[in-house]
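During the second half of the funding period, the structural biology subgroup turned its attention to how the target accommodates small molecules. The most pressing case was magnesium ion, which had performed well in the primary screen but for which no bound structure existed. We therefore specified the complex as follows and requested a full 3D prediction, including the ligand pose.
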Amino acid sequence: MNVEQILAGAKDGFLLEPESKGILAQSGISTTACRVANTADEAVKLAEEIGYPVVLKALSPQIVHKSDVGGVHLDLNDASAVRQAYQRIKGATRVIDPEARATVQPMAAKGVEVIAGLTTNPQFGKVLMFGLGGIFTELLKDVSFRLVPIEELDAREMIGSIEGNGVLEGFRGGPAADVDAIVDILLKVSTLAESYPAIAELDLNPIIVYPRGAVVVDARIGVSRGRVETRSAPVRLPK
Ligand code: ADP
Ligand code: MG
């Protein structure tokens, strides 16, 4: 499905991980594609098609922070680990959503985790956010913002202005992270937000960055068609 088709089939609200990643992939952003399993057997079949190691995650409109509810199982290496993870997800989500299912996706290698986000401000319109993952964002609020659309220089400034940006230059003598790959994702998110007014929010958390390349492993897109992005006063109709 292309972006128009995914959005046409969506109500206002948040798209789940498979549809969100579908939109990103259509925009040329690299993601760990995720496929939906309705049973433990299906999860095993998908894992075997994808190839081990895989990740299983809870899939439910009621669950936003999947790991908070025991809904993320990483680095599963065989059929019995997949089966057990599926059952654990069902057990953990029974009360929140008895209909919850699971996604199966490839396990991405370790790298530097960063995040990119998009929000819509009623006054200024769409705002792009960049930050380093984990405590850098949540605790230290070490993030940068730019109005959409951005150009390459803006993307580089967003990344460069983060306090903790030394993390991208290599850790303990390790290789530097591919900043160009992050720039590319920020530019593509900006274009996506500009091209599709209905995309009001977006959360790529995290993007795993390597010495070469970067991949989005978790994504959520908020759709809103009713939003009025006008800066002028509302029109008053005569009585
Ligand atoms: P949530 O944010 O809803 O709790 P995530 O999908 O972000 O769930 O998963 C939690 C963490 O698990 C991520 O921050 C990342 O570190 C890791 N992770 C998730 N998916 C993958 C994947 N496909 N490959 C490797 N690590 C992953
Ligand atoms: Mg996440």
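Two results from this model are relevant to the next phase. The chain is about 30% helix and 25% strand. The chain has a mean pLDDT of 93.
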